[in-house]
Design goal:
72% of the residues lie in helices and 0% in strands. It is mainly α. α1 packs antiparallel against α2 (58-76). The radius of gyration is 21 Å and the shape is elongated. The model has no long low-confidence stretch (mean pLDDT 92).
Amino acid sequence: MEGKNRNDLVFELHYSYNLENLNYHLNDRLNKLLITIQLLLSSAVFGDLDRFFPDFHLNIIIGFILAILSVLSLVYGFGEKAALSKVAQAQYQPLLKSYSTMTDEELNKALITSDLLNNNITGTLTDIAYKRASIQLELEDDTKLSFCQLFVAKFCGEKF
């Protein structure tokens, strides 16, 4: 068990679940946002805005923006990342419901098994997930989130 007590294991369970949940919501919402913007801009190209603003060449500008958004979607694969996080998140849901009836050894083994499906998530989401797990377990938390982290938390649907 590597020196982890019951409280550490329960916190790790909540933290991991929240991290995957945040990653799912962030990537899913980014994917939907990019798709919506692409659809709106595509409509603008078909609407031929150049005839209203002939000096600005809006169709070329909109086409350039569409190309950038398409490359972002393709390279970063927000939809795929969301799907992987949803699968990993689903591994933790049964554990959240049954960990109170499990021994420390059983919980540790279940966490090790679930960790195999975890995504490598770093950066902004880690502090947000830590704060959410602390709140859920009613632990004292002095984590201060930056403006960027607060924005991402709101974008993911978190309310602190």
